[in-house]
Protein: Stomatin-like protein
Amino acid sequence: MSITRAAAQLAFKPRILQSPTTTTTRQFLLAASSQLQQSAQTRRRLLHNTPRNASNGNIPGTSTGGGSLPPTYFQKSTSLPMNTIIRFVPQQTAWIVERMGKFHRQLQPGLAILIPFIDRIAYVKSLKEVAMEIPSQSAITADNVTLELDGVLYTRVLDAYKASYGVEDAEYAISQLAQTTMRSEIGQLTLDHVLKERAALNINITQAINEAAQAWGVTCLRYEIRDIHAPKPVVEAMHRQVTAERSKRAEILDSEGQRQSAINIAEGQKQSQILASEAARAEKINEATGEAEAILLKAKATAAAIEAVAQAIAQGKGAAQNALTLSVAEKYVDAFAQLAKEGTAVVVPGNVGDMSGLIASAMGVYGKVAEGQAKMVAKQEKEEREREKKEWKGVSVNDVYGKQ
Structure:
């Protein structure tokens, strides 16, 4: 520790020491500090300015399966930071220090002081979230369809010690685990379920990776299936299926429209016929009601006229008798006038030329009819009086007053 303290004093107070030994130590520290800054700049360029395509250069940790990967935080870096006694650990970075070949400690972001020749920076782990491309691979679904799938895996180092010593090549292990898990999950689903349940498939793959990667100090935040490529015949069959389904839906919609149109037309005709029949019924009812009222009024007028004539005759008015005779004669003449217009044979009385005799005969008939009606009325009145007598027979005065 005395050597470290002396080095620190020489680094922060170079002007105090003027001996040649002090000058040499100060030059050594300045050179180490300059090398530290250059190493930090190089590391930042590797972490932040990594090409996205593998064709731009051979980057350690990239996949050779056609995808491009950022600098890995799993494997040992090809150019680890040198032990310059004083080091500055960047933010979101963990350095694993070994002392005499054995794990000693984990350096956190900030100032770090190391012992030369004894301490060695063995691993550098980035604690940031990193996107790792999973190369394209073949998988067979439950309905025996071969698919080509690739994806993106988002991971982060939680324990730098486990990520350094828990697995030899964590990147390769996680990549292989993601591929095998994907094939296993795809094999349990049909093609339609793979296309529809991509979100559930991503969740299942993430859970399976986390169960295995827990011992490696790495967590899988999420997994996203990026592209799914099916064989060309399968794609063509899917297109035909979609086209047929669309045509089926269009025909169903057309038939439903025609059916609804026919129903609407029939319903309209039904309502039209119902309304027309109701209108005809109302018209007939109105006509019948009018005819009935007309007949009733005509009958009442005829009855009133006959009653007036009968009363006049009963009172012995000669003028009424003459008026009745004149009315009968007029109707008789009108009837014969109508008969004269017809070309048919008609049977008439023999004394058709004796007008006075015909009228006298008609009046005699009328008188007989009137006499018969009078007798009938008298008979009805007599029967009514006899019925009343029978009802009152045997009833005393006390009974009448008792009822009252």
About this structure: Residues 363 and 369 are 10 Å apart (CA to CA). The first strand starts at residue 86 and ends at 89. Residues 316-392 form one domain.
